[in-house]
């Protein structure tokens, strides 16, 4: 009986050891070694950390500027370089010329690899979030200018507060009041946070006795993927290029 349990435990340990080995991949080159880590950037690619032998028994650990390259590919390179120094300072890591790095002794290599990879990932995530916020602000400007033209400024309140059924006050990009109707217009990007925020707001508004019409304006329905069906449960979803007639008609429809 004991032998069977020991064999089962040994097999289990071998499985777990295999998982641990698979989480990281190492390759050695002439002057440095590279570790592929299970630390994912927003694009889905994994962080790679470089280790170089340094002086006096120390090692130099860096992300080789991969974080910057990831951010730059999405158009957020400048936002990355702006936020990365603060990320590095909090973690006690060096940041210079788009690269996170840290010089350590051998006994601190594991921690250094982990923290450099984490900093690289965090800086990219911060840059992606700020880029999304900028895109949303620009989209809000374009949307409000269009609504002012369609309905006149007197009927459009930008940054209005609308109280939902939960008594939560929501700030909406634009509230249009016309012919006894109310309509909420909100630009929504494909970023998961943007979709979740808009959906929470719209769902609460749908529970009102007399809910306003809800219009989500997106850059591309295709880019929303499966989130399109999700947000469509609480709002009419239209693309930025929709005609003025449709944008105006949605404000006059009875809200469901």
Q: Tell me, what's the shape?
A: elongated
**Percent in strands:** 25-35%
Order of strands, widest sheet: 1-2-3-4-6-5
Measure the end-to-end span. 66 Å
Largest sheet features? 6 strands, antiparallel
Query: What structural class is derived from the secondary structure elements?
Result: alpha+beta
Rg, nearest Å: 26 Å
Parts with pLDDT < 50 across at least 5 consecutive residues: none
Helix content: 40-55%
State the helix count.
8
Structural domains: how many: 2
Total beta-strand segments: 11
Rounded mean pLDDT is 91
Q: What is the succession of H and E elements?
A: HEEEEHHEEHEEEHEHHEH
Please explain how this structure is put together.
This protein is of the alpha+beta class and 256 residues long. It has two domains: 2-128, no CATH class; 152-252, Trna Endonuclease, Chain: A, domain 1 (3-Layer(aba) Sandwich). It is 47% helix and 28% strand. The chain is built from eight helices and eleven strands. It has helices spanning 2-22, 66-73, 77-91, 109-151, 192-206, 221-224, 227-232, 244-252; strands at residues 25-28, 33-40, 46-53, 58-62, 94-96, 99-105, 156-163, 169-178, 181-188, 213-218, 236-239. It has a six-stranded antiparallel sheet. Strands 7-8-9-10-11 form a five-stranded mixed sheet, sandwiched between helices. Helix 2 (66-73) runs antiparallel to helix 3 (77-91), helix 2 (66-73) packs parallel to helix 4 and helix 3 (77-91) crosses helix 4 (109-151). The longest helix has 43 residues, at 109-151. It is elongated.
């Amino acid at each position: 009986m004991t032998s069977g349990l020991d064999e089962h435990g040994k097999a289990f340990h071998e499985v777990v050891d295999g998982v641990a080995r698979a989480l990281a991949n190492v390759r050695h080159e002439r002057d440095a070694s590279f570790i592929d880590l299970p630390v994912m950037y927003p694009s889905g690619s994994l962080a790679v950390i470089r280790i170089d032998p340094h002086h006096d028994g120390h090692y130099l650990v860096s992300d080789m500027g991969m974080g910057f390259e990831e951010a730059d590919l999405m158009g957020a390179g400048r936002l990355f370089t702006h936020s990365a120094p603060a990320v590095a300072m909090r973690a006690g890591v060096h940041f210079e010329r788009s690269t996170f790095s840290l010089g350590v002794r051998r006994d601190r290599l594991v921690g250094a690899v982990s923290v450099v990879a984490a900093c690289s990932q965090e800086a990219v995530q911060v840059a992606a979030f700020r880029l999304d916020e900028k895109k949303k602000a620009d989209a809000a400007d374009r949307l409000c200018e269009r609504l002012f033209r369609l309905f006149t400024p007197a009927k459009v309140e930008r940054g209005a507060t609308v109280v939902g059924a939960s008594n939560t006050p929501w700030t909406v990009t634009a509230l249009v009041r016309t012919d006894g109707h109310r309509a909420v217009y909100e630009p929504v990007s494909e970023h998961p946070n943007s979709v979740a925020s808009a959906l929470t707001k719209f769902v609460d508004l749908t529970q009102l006795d007399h809910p306003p019409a809800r219009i989500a304006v997106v850059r591309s329905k295709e880019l929303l993927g499966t989130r399109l069906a999700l947000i469509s449960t609480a709002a009419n979803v239209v693309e930025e290029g929709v005609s003025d007639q449709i944008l105006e008609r949605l404000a006059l429809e009875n809200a469901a």
